[in-house]
Every structure is written in C-alpha cells, then in structure tokens.
C-alpha cells in the first residue's frame, strides 16, 4: 500500500473539520476524492502532505487559531505525520495545490526550474524530465519564455501540475484542478491527468466535478461535512441512487 490514512481528525479550536478519516491508495492507482465545497477535501490533502500545522504564537505567547490533529499517515510503510512538508516531498509525496499559484513574475521555464530543486540543474535527469513535461504539455514548451502570470487559467493549471511533476512524485496529490476552467479546457486537462496516471505515477485527485473524476478514477471516496460517507468504484457509486442524489448532485 502506497498511502494509508488511519483515523485522521483535524480541528481548528473547537470546530471539527475532519473526523476519523480512513483512506488507502495503492501503487499505480488513480483515486478520486469528491464532495461538495467545504467538505474538508483540501484540508485532508494538506494534512496528508504536512501542510496543516500549529499556527505561530502571537506576541503575547498565546496560540491563535489552534489546530489539533489525530490519527496516522503512512507513506510507503513509514509514518510521516510527524514530518515537515519538505521532508515529505523528498520521499516522493507531492502536493499540487488548488488555484494554481504559479510564480507569476517568472517565466514558464523558470517555474519548472524552481520545481526541480531536488535535481541537478541542466543535468541529464533534469533535461530528460523537462522533455517529458514538454511532450505531455506542448503549450508549455511553446510558452517557455513567457511570463507565467500572463498565461490563461488552463495553461497556468498545466504549469502547476508540470512544476509538481518536476519533483518526480511517487504519489501526486492534485487539488481541485478544474476550478474556474471552461468545460472544453477541463476535458483537455483531465485527459493529460489520465496520461500522467498511465505513465505510472499514482494520483490522488480532489475534485468537485464528479462526472469527470469518475471517468478517470479506479476508486473514489466521498467526503461530506468532514466525514467519509462512502467509497467504491465509479460504477458502484453511480448505481446507488441515494449517493447520486445526496452527495454527487447527479
């Protein structure tokens, strides 16, 4: 098992955001995590990848917005819930955050270069990986010298995923890649995510677009109000009328 999350809970002060979450991701799977806005999907990804931490003390030494976590996260058989985010990345668990967030004043190439900070710049491995990225996202090769802040939304999302791929992930967690994109752009982007999965990279995909996610994912988890309400194959979940109407909006 590549990723195992056991009884994970997250609370902000007295508000429970996630309660007793249990998920598993096997090697070479594309697993979907779907649910309505505010269900806790992004918080779950952030907790898995080490980005949910205690907030800093204020000037008076008091905790502000105190975050509590419980449960365990294992990656490749090793507990990682105690590790900082940068060490988790080095192990091959990579988070591609929502809303793209390129380094807006840098070129496309410079963004990819920044993403490859674990590789030797201009080395054989870097050049090989860069060519693979350009093959998967030809528009990024065309726009290599363009300032990333001037790209379209779809192009920025491709850049965000490409930058994450420069870290050579064993498991790539992609958070809400379709936000703000036109349907035809979303469809094209999801085809490329599917190609990444076929290349052998395991993917945990967080999305609100259930229909698109279910066309790609081998298994899915449904999250609502911070709790997992169901899991299963796309076909099984779509055949459950209660799940379709209550949680999938179909």
TrEMBL record:
Family annotation (Pfam families): ABC_tran
Keyword Nucleotide-binding in record: yes
Matching Gene3D superfamilies: P-loop containing nucleotide triphosphate hydrolases
Molecular function terms from GO: ATP binding; ATP hydrolysis activity; branched-chain amino acid transmembrane transporter activity
SMART domains: AAA
PROSITE patterns: ABC_TRANSPORTER_1, ABC_TRANSPORTER_2
Keywords, in A-Z order: Amino-acid transport, ATP-binding, Nucleotide-binding, Transport
InterPro entries: AAA+_ATPase, ABC_transporter-like_ATP-bd, ABC_transporter-like_CS, BCAA_Transport_ATP-bd_LivF, P-loop_NTPase
SUPFAM superfamilies, per the entry: P-loop containing nucleoside triphosphate hydrolases
Transmembrane helix in keyword set: no
Organism superkingdom: Bacteria
Domain ABC transporter stretches: 3-250
One record GO biological process: L-amino acid transport
Family according to the record: Belongs to the ABC transporter superfamily.
PANTHER family: HIGH-AFFINITY BRANCHED-CHAIN AMINO ACID TRANSPORT ATP-BINDING PROTEIN LIVF
Name the UniProt record assigns to this protein: ABC transporter related protein
